[in-house]
Design a protein that fits this description.
Elements lengths: L2 E7 L12 E7 L8 E9 L3 H4 L1 H4 L10 E8 L9 E4 L6 E4 L10 E2 L19 H14 L6 E4 L5 H12 L3 E6 L2 H9 L4 E4 L6 H8 L4 E6 L4 H7 L2 E9 L18 H7 L2 E4 L9 H13 L7 E5 L4 H10 L5 E5 L1
Parallel strand pairs: 8-9, 8-11, 9-10, 11-12, 12-13, 14-15
Antiparallel strand pairs: 1-2, 3-4, 3-6, 3-15, 4-5, 5-7
Length: 334
């Protein structure tokens, strides 16, 4: 029997997650049945949505959910032969037996069989995976940006925000981003953002947004929520479009934040707001992934990674990711 190490959610989060909310256990895996595979995890993806949706999706005592890239080491499913690599919604586990189905409709998919040997498989969870697809679909399917438009990106140094800005620059847009450290501001300028400011050090969000683009914004890619969202609404152009990808400033609140009601800005500026998730366009995923890979090979997009070594360090890496101090996509190398 193959044994797996797993991290369970010992206690639902109360405010900001703590180490004591998790517990590592060992379990014996069942035999692989028809239609199933056994996976050996290579990298775990750490994402803010794991905090936002935790209480709604799992119970105390369940394995913490999340995505991973893994190698098939046993197979009774011809679609996933031994030795191939997959993106699997199996959570925080070193090994899994699965038929490919996960929470909220997630399914296991093959990593591109011709994945470039000079690009780490970790990128299949980040800039060349769900992260990159989230950015691409938000830009193309939701915002439908056009050359010459001005795009605002909050949380711009995050894994998604960084990709949004670079994709918009390729499409001929002016891009403004906000970030929470001078290191992040410097990186965003390096990858082509036209204007970046540190939201932690400006005296006024309204003034910072006006200074960055006095004429306003055609599109806003929303990652943070809270006061920034209110400030951004007031700087939108008439008939501006807003893609809501996340609201990380709200995820750890026990008491909901209060802010001015947005109705007048929405009405007077005739704004469009759409929430979305990357899994809405599965028929586009393979072709879109190939586009992202090609852009990286051509040097048109760059991505940072923060990789933590060791499965035992997963909760600590998750907590650090939520604090927003690191630059780049957060991952654990199992």
């Amino acid at each position: 029997m193959v044994k797996a190490k797993v991290w369970i959610l010992r206690k639902h989060f109360d405010g900001f997650p703590k180490d004591s909310d998790f517990e590592m256990k060992e379990e014996e895996l069942p035999e692989v049945k028809d239609g199933e595979v056994m996976l050996e995890t290579i990298f775990l993806s750490l994402d803010a949505y794991m905090r936002a949706l935790s209480k709604a999706l799992i119970n105390e005592g369940d394995v913490q959910f999340g995505g991973q890239v893994a190698k098939v080491i046993q197979s009774k499913n011809p679609a996933y032969p031994v030795g191939c690599y997959v993106l699997a919604p199996c959570g925080w586990r070193t090994h899994s037996v699965t038929n490919g189905n996960g929470l909220f409709g997630q399914i296991m998919t093959r990593v591109l069989p011709d994945w470039p040997q000079d690009i780490s498989l970790s990128m299949s969870l980040g800039a060349l995976g769900m992260t990159g697809l989230t950015a691409l679909y938000g830009v193309e399917e939701v915002l439908q940006v056009k050359p010459g438009e001005i795009v605002l990106v909050s949380g711009a140094a995050g894994a998604v925000g960084t990709m949004v800005g670079q994709i918009c620059k390729m499409k001929g847009c002016k891009v403004v981003g906000s970030a929470g450290s001078e290191e992040k501001v410097s990186f965003l300028k390096e990858v082509g953002f036209d204007h970046v400011f540190n939201y932690r050090t400006v005296s006024s969000l309204d003034e910072a947004l006006k200074e960055a683009s006095p004429e306003g914004y055609d599109c806003y890619f929303e990652n943070v929520g809270g006061p920034f969202f209110t400030a951004a609404l007031n700087q939108m152009k008439m008939e501006g479009r807003i893609a809501v990808c996340g609201a990380i400033s709200l995820y750890n609140d026990n008491t909901p934040q209060m802010c001015p009601y947005p109705h007048m800005a929405l009405l007077t500026r005739r704004l469009k707001i759409q929430g979305f998730q990357a899994n809405q366009w599965p028929e586009k995923d393979e072709a879109s992934t190939r586009r992202l890979v090609a852009w990286m090979k051509e040097g048109k997009i760059k991505a940072k990674e923060k990789i933590t070594e060791g499965f035992e360090n997963t909760p600590a890496a998750f907590i650090r990711m939520l604090k927003g101090t690191d630059l780049g996509k957060a991952l654990v190398k199992v």
